[in-house]
Each structure stands twice: as structure tokens, then as C-alpha cells.
Amino acid sequence: MTKQIIMAGCLALTALLSAGAAEAASKIVVEKNHSTRVVLPASAGSVIVGNPEVADVTVVDSRTIYIMGRGFGRSSVSVTDSAGRNIFDADVMVGTPVEGGVTVYKGLKPSTMICSRTCIEQTDGMQSASPTPAAPPSPAS
After folding, report:
1. Does pLDDT of 10 surpass 50?
2. What CATH number is given for 24-95 in this structure?
3. Where in the chain is the domain with CATH 2.60.40.1080?
4. CA nearest neighbour of 101 among 91, 93, 111
5. pTM of the model
6. DSSP 77-136
7. 86-95 vs 26-31, strand pairing mode
8. Which strand ranges, in their side-by-side order, compose the sheet holding 86-95?
9. Cβ neighbourhood burial of 90 (10 Å; 0-12, 13-18, 19+)
10. CB under 8 Å to 78, separation ≥6 — which residues?
11. 69 contacts 32 by C-beta, under 8 angstroms
12. What span, in angstroms and rounded, lies between the C-alpha atoms of 129 and 118?
């Protein structure tokens, strides 16, 4: 009888710990056009990216992935083992660099400016020394 109570207690504790681990997603902040390395606790079977326009994943080996910032925003990244059990869950936020970077909004479109003495607009990973051209004049009616 005592053995059964101890066994039931162990099973309940295991279930509680498993549920807590599954709910606790880590938060990862990565700059646009940069990546961060993640070492997995077990071998990966599948990788799921919530929004591939925001984040992407490159699998290096069964226990190492790189999460890359592709666009501004937020995405989830989940990794399961070959049996479908969740081994990694992250909330990924992709933004601009904190130091030396400024975001300028032109209407609803954000522009990332990399600044030292002067600011240069950064677009798609390439720096542009010229300012963004103004909209062409509207045709005469």
C-alpha cells in the first residue's frame, strides 16, 4: 500500500513538472538580419516556425539550431523530438539594434537607421548612403 502511494506521488510530481516545462516558453530577442545559437536538450525531430516572415531556423545538427531574424515582429519557434514531444518552445521577438540604431516611421512603414555621427538607412541587410526618394509628383488633372 505504501509503495502504491509513493508511486502515485511520483507520477503526479512528474506530470506537474512536465506541464510546467511545456508552458514555460523562453523569450529570445534577435536583431533583424542576425542570428542566435540555441543548444537543444535532446535530438530534434521537427522544427515549427510560427511566422517565417519574422524568424527562420537553420538546423546545424540534431541538437543545435540557429534562429534568424528575418523581419520585424514576433513569432514562435517550437522543436519536437522524433516521438513528437516538445523539447523547445520560444517566443521570438525580432527588432532593431538597441545601440546605434533608430527606427523612423514614414507613415506606417518603419525605416531602420544605423547611426554614429550621421545616420544611414538600412534596408534588407544592405546599407544605403542615399536617402529614400520622395514620392513622385501626382499627375496633373
Report:
1. no
2. 2.60.40.1080
3. 24-95
4. 111
5. 0.57
6. EEEE-TTS-EEEEEEEEEE--SSSEEEEEETTEEEEEEESSSEEEEETTEEESSPPPPPP
7. parallel
8. 26-31, 86-95, 73-80, 46-49
9. buried
10. 47, 48, 50, 86, 88, 89, 90
11. yes
12. 10
CA–CA gap between residue 73 and residue 49 (Å, rounded): 13
Hey, what's the torsion of the CAs at 56, 57, 58, 63, to 10 degrees?
A: 170
Q: Is pLDDT of 22 > 50?
A: no
| Residues above pLDDT 70, as percent of the chain | 60
Distance, in Å, from the CA atom of 133 to the CA atom of 31, rounded to the nearest integer, reads 26
Contact in structure between 63 and 42 (CB atoms under 8 Å): yes
C-alpha cell at 136: 513622385
The Cα 25–Cα 15 span in angstroms is 17
Joined together, the cell numbers standing for residue 79 give: 522543436
Rg, C-alpha atoms of the chain? 23
Chain length of the chain: 141
- Out of 29-33, 105-109, 120-124, least confident range: 120-124
